Amino acid sequence: MTTIRRRDLLAVGLLATIPFSGLMAQQSTEPRDDRVNIAYWEQLKYPPLAFLGRVQGLVVIHATLDNKGSVIEANAIWGSKYLIPDCLANAKKWRFEPNSQKTVVIVYHFHFAEGACDPGTGYSSTFQLIPPNFASITGCPPFIEQ
Questions:
Q1: Domain limits of the chain?
Q2: Beta carbons within 8 Å of 61's beta carbon, 6+ residues apart
Q3: CA atoms of 128 and 43, how far apart (whole Å)
Q4: Cis peptide leading into residue 131 (ω within 30°)
Q5: pLDDT of residue 119
Q6: What does the alpha-carbon distance between residue 58 and residue 6 come to, in Å, rounded to a whole number?
Q7: Are 81 and 31 in contact (CB under 8 A)?
Q8: What's the whole-model pTM score?
Q9: How confident is the model at residue 33, as a pLDDT?
Q10: Where is pLDDT greater, at 35 or 101?
Q11: Which residue, 92, 81, 96, 113, is CA-closest to 44?
Q12: Average pLDDT value for residue range 78-105
């Protein structure tokens, strides 16, 4: 079982603090967490193929907002190719209180945890939002009696 490694957290922290002008030519200011206020979010289930392959890790999404705070564009700046498409689709359903930069960063953390869910069989996961912009998706492996 893999947990968030200190190196991963450091990388995400650095990505959140550096100006995006070097990463994305159209952005001239850096998004900051103190300007992120979520008005609506939608839960995300563990993507089925990633679940079966036990793919874990962080996905960092940079989103552009309209004047009302709806996500009009989302781009992945970090993460597994097996997790990114579902994160992009999910991020486009979120709404934020408008900010002057019209940008936000959303961090998704995918991991597996034995006993994190009610015992059962088959594919299941839990979603937890940790404000202002961190989503934790825990895969719950099927309970197998031995």
A1: 38-139
A2: 74, 75, 76, 77, 87, 88, 91, 105, 106, 107, 108
A3: 8
A4: no
A5: 56
A6: 12
A7: no
A8: 0.74
A9: 52
A10: 101
A11: 92
A12: 95
